[in-house]
Design goal:
mainly alpha
């Protein structure tokens, strides 16, 4: 009986083309400022290229990329020159928020609601401690299994489950602290912000 053939390692250019949008989205959810996201994504793919030979094809590619993205984003965010005074919103999002109707009863267009929910979701995610946020993002948003998360982050599955539990508690506490207008926007959308 022939053993199953080993999975092949995808070429770097294929990884890049198929994963750049995912990495940019992950960086957004991890709090990298809009103005820095492409630079940080470039750093992520430099690491991917250097570590390409280390990739084990038995591991899900997204899990491996998420671990690398997390490490690069964490280093980037730790640098003082990349810190932002107000986490979670850039100037464009502030402008969008200022343009929002003052009357909460006024019906928001689908685009306005989407912009508001994305900004709100980012703010809520920023309230979750970094070590917990990555597990929450990988598990609840990217639907990556805990064994793959643990392997990608170099932690035990039990530690991963504990971080996920604490992240969800932090996120829920942040939702409870929202002002009335933001809670109304979430309620009108019918969408849990963590699902965005």
């Amino acid at each position: 009986q022939n053993p199953e053939p080993e999975a092949e390692r995808p070429a770097f250019d294929l990884i890049y083309r198929s994963s750049i949008a995912y990495v940019l989205g992950m960086l957004w959810r991890l709090g990298v400022a809009d103005r820095d996201r492409e630079d940080v994504a470039h750093e992520v793919f430099l690491v991917v290229q250097r570590r390409h030979a280390d990739y084990d094809p038995s591991m899900k590619l997204r899990s491996w990329l998420a671990g690398i993205t997390w490490n690069v984003a964490k280093r980037w965010n730790e640098l003082a020159r990349h810190r932002r005074l107000e986490l979670g919103m850039n100037d464009e999002e502030h402008e969008n928020e200022a343009d929002a109707p003052a009357d909460p009863e006024q019906i928001l267009s689908a685009r306005e609601l989407e912009v508001q929910l994305r900004a709100l979701t980012r703010t809520l995610l920023q309230s979750v401690p970094d070590e917990q946020r990555i597990v929450l993002v990988m598990h609840d948003l990217d639907e990556i299994g805990m064994p793959d998360i643990a392997r990608a982050l170099g932690i035990s599955p039990n530690t991963g489950w504990d971080r996920l539990r604490r992240a969800r508690l932090s996120f829920e506490a942040a939702v409870r602290r929202l002002n009335e207008r933001d809670r109304d926007a979430l309620g009108k959308s019918g969408i849990r912000p963590i699902s965005l």
